[in-house]
Design goal:
Blueprint lengths: L2 E3 L4 E4 L10 E7 L2 E7 L4 E9 L3 H10 L1 H4 L4 E6 L4 E5 L8 H8 L5 E8 L4 E8 H10 L3 E5 L1 H11 L6 E8 L2 E8 L2 E9 L3 H15 L7 E5 L9 H4 L6 E3 L7 E2 L19
Parallel strand pairs: 3-6, 5-16, 6-10, 11-14, 14-15
Antiparallel strand pairs: 1-2, 2-5, 3-4, 4-5, 7-9, 8-9, 11-12, 12-13
């Protein structure tokens, strides 16, 4: 496996990398990190670059210098991991009102608003990104689609619901945030995002969801996906509060060229699953 840590970023590259073979890109945008996932025409991951940033100027410079972005005119999907999103039932969704839906959930001003259907469009995820930041990406990538990061977690969990118990909570860890889904009798009853940086915060939000859904914490199954160190949480602490808790590796629908699979070391859901 090929993992290279440099002064400015981390690379997860295939052993025989040819950046000119890039056919599509998935960009994961976190508050202070950008991950670029490059795939070839066979939809196999060739390489991944992970960049930290603080200022918009750093982000713009990253897009300019990234070899996968600069070496091709590949289509790209930008997944935005922020607090600005909401879910709308597909049968009620009107694309002309997407700004209104999002404004009910999160006050927005000067945002680019976008939507993505999941579960055969039974649910629509509406998201938003500041136009100043969206412009940085659209300036560098001509064929750009935007979606909220919640789409990846929701798509995976809905795909797995047939195997769930009558009371189940699933938690997907993404850097310093978690996406929590509650399923009752295999039906989605709750989905939201929380910022977590300690055991206490994790327990506070999890107990709140348990209470809201009237689940029994001694019987409800709680499944965790991701790296607990990203949110400063210890598994042994959680076992003191939950009887049926498991840290699980996601099923995968991603293919890798030899060497690039080292990206799985991050334990991110996107290393295993693409919607």
């Amino acid at each position: 496996m090929t993992t290279t840590v440099k002064n400015t970023h981390t690379e997860f590259h295939s052993d025989k990398l040819d950046v000119t073979a890039t056919s599509s890109l998935s960009l994961l945008l976190y508050p202070e990190k950008l991950i670029v996932i490059a795939k070839n025409q066979n939809d196999s991951i060739m390489g991944v670059n992970s960049y930290p940033f603080v200022e918009l100027e750093e982000l713009e410079f990253t897009l300019k210098k990234d070899p996968f972005i600069s070496a091709s005119k590949a289509k790209a999907t930008l997944f935005v991991f922020n607090e600005c999103f909401c879910l709308v039932p597909g049968m009620l969704f009107d694309p002309n009102e997407k700004d209104t839906y999002l404004n009910f959930s999160t006050p927005i001003e000067d945002h680019e608003v976008f939507q993505t259907g999941v579960d055969n469009n039974k649910t629509v995820v509406v998201g938003g990104l500041e136009k100043s930041m969206a412009k940085i990406f659209s300036k560098r990538i001509a064929d750009l689609n935007m979606a909220h990061g919640a789409v990846i977690a929701l798509d995976y969990l809905l795909h797995e619901r047939s195997e769930m118990l009558n009371q189940e909570i699933s938690v997907v860890i993404e850097d310093h945030q978690i996406y929590v889904a509650g399923f009752s009798n295999k039906e989605l009853k709750f989905f939201n995002r929380f910022e977590v940086s300690s055991n206490q915060e994790f327990l506070k939000y999890t107990f709140s969801v348990l209470h809201q859904l009237a689940f029994d914490r001694m019987h409800c199954k709680i499944t965790l996906f991701g790296n607990l160190t990203d949110i400063n949480v210890q598994e042994e602490v959680l076992h003191q509060y939950f009887k049926n808790l498991a840290l699980s590796t996601p099923k995968t629908n991603q293919n890798y060229l030899l060497g690039a699979e080292s990206f799985k070391e991050t334990q991110k859901l996107s290393a295993y699953w693409t919607n």
